[in-house]
Design a protein that fits this description.
Elements lengths: L1 H16 L8 H8 L10 E5 L11 H12 L5 E11 L2 E4 L15 H4 L9 H10 L5 E4 L6 H10 L7 E7 L4 H10 L1 H4 L3 E7 L18 H15 L3 H5 L6 H6 L7 H8 L7 E4 L3 E2 L3 E2 L2 E4 L1
Parallel strand pairs: 1-6, 2-5, 2-6, 3-4
Antiparallel strand pairs: 1-10, 7-10, 8-9
Helix pairs in contact: 3-6, 7-12
Length: 295
Amino acid sequence: MDYLCRVERRNALRLLALTPIAAMTLRDMATAADGFAPTPPMPVLFLGHGSPMNAIEDNPFTQGWRNVGKDLPRPSAILCISAHWETHGTFVTGMDKPRTIHDFGGFPQALFDVQYPALGSSELVQHTQEAVTSAHVGVDHAWGLDHGAWSVIMHLFPKADIPVVQLSLDRGLSPQQHYALAKELAVLRKKGVLIIGSGNMVHNLGILDWNNPDAGFDWAVEANTRMKELITTGDHIRLANYTALGPAFQLSIPTPEHYLPLLYTLGLQSDGEEISLFNDRLVMGSIAMTSLRIG
């Protein structure tokens, strides 16, 4: 009987050695159990979100987002860095059912009627906290999904069947520190997490040209062109030090919140990783809808 037990045990161990789980660490197995199994690196997106009306309009920008969404691997969850959530300190949304925030005014009722009922993810909250070691990541239970998040994600995943967590922009960090923090998030890409930065590379609402909906001021064109050159050549250092790049950049980025999500996206780019631009247009003189995909 003892001999038979030993044989059975050897056979079981031999079978286990032939299965993929044998090569997994205990950490890998724990990750797989919570739905974040190891994956090839997920793509990263920066989406120029523009007007909240893009949530309910069918136009070249929303079509561009939908086309990108069709080519994405299905993520385990989404981590979104939106221009519209600034805090003192760094936070992630921790609720199970984040509310759809209509953080704007003066738009049609149809826009206020939109709901994006994606679930949150306590597991992604934990993985984000573990990934970021340079700062304490607090958990917020009051915010939800602002329009910088839901107005674009709803075009990528209209069924709202992917959990979404937002990461806030800490007002106390420099652009360089935001960029460095983004690099710490790179481990999430290998857990099936789609990371999205949502803002606008050029964003100056103070001098919109309502009579010129399909073009940009000369300085906006100059800054947008220069940004794209630096993005495609991988010169992230200059992009993080944008305040030293001259008057066109100063007019294009009068406040940093819409530009910083771009730095988060770029901080997640690996050496030699492919980058592509889309929705590359200026509107109303001073807003760039330029978007990009990494990977």
